[in-house]
Design brief:
2 domains; 7 helices; about 15% strand
Length: about 240
């Protein structure tokens, strides 16, 4: 079996193992966030190396036999599959602004109260990111606006809480008198904590619902906070309309 095929397979295996370790290693506190993202780069480099060596291994297959071909192809498949994840994440990040604080009301965003102490040590502060972020959000997510519903405040509040629970969010506060619901959504792979506050208030013949979703870590959320608000909006409207 040709040595090029062996190295191709080992590089592909290393890329796959490195990718699979990123989530558990970060969740367990073995790696910091910076190292986690550097591993993504290493995975891509390993995949590139596997691709180059794999092609060379296939070119000499007539000398090394069928076993080398299978091993080289397996290494290339492992490497390509592993590299596709960070490449896809990079592509998603390039399509959205590098912001992590999204709200349906950029002029008067809902404020965190119960969750504020939970974010005391978070790299991203609890305060709203400001007008620069608001301007970027309005350009990137023009569909995120205050939700207006023809139903009573108590009815909307009850359904908003139920919708948040259905989405799997951990609810920290549900103050009906203040019209405020606060919750945390934990991502599956890295267990990132993204916090949500929902404000429900009476308007002119409608009930107004504003939502804010903010990541605790990271500069860019690759669009996840906006998508989270959309999921909540759709779940709430499905219950009330």
């Amino acid at each position: 079996m040709h040595w090029l095929a062996r190295i191709t397979f080992l590089l592909g295996l290393a890329a796959a193992v490195g990718l699979l370790l990123t989530g558990p290693a970060y969740r367990m506190g073995w790696w910091e966030l910076g190292l986690t993202f550097r591993v993504f780069f290493y995975v891509v480099y390993a995949a590139i190396g596997a691709a180059v060596l794999g092609v060379l291994a296939l070119l000499v297959r007539w000398r090394s036999g069928k076993g080398s071909v299978v091993l080289a192809l397996l290494g290339m498949v492992l490497a390509g599959g592993a590299a596709s994840v960070p490449v896809m994440m990079r592509s998603q990040a390039s399509e959205v602004p590098p912001i992590h604080d999204i709200t349906t009301n950029t002029l008067d965003p809902p404020q965190f109260v119960a969750i504020a102490p939970l974010r005391a040590d978070a790299p991203n502060p609890v305060t709203y990111a400001g007008e620069e972020t608001a301007a970027k959000q309005r350009e990137a997510y023009p569909d995120l606006q205050t939700i207006r519903i023809r139903a009573t405040v108590p009815e909307v509040f009850a359904q908003a809480r139920a919708a948040a629970a259905d989405l799997g969010w951990e609810i920290h506060a549900a103050e009906e008198g203040e019209g405020r619901i606060e919750a945390t959504d934990t991502t599956r792979w890295f267990a990132f904590k993204d916090d949500v506050v929902i404000r429900i208030a009476a308007g002119n013949e409608v009930t107004l619902v504003d939502v804010r979703s903010k990541s605790r870590v990271g500069m860019s959320d690759i669009g996840l906070n906006a998508e989270r608000i959309r999921l909540f909006r759709d779940a709430l409207l499905a219950r009330l309309l």
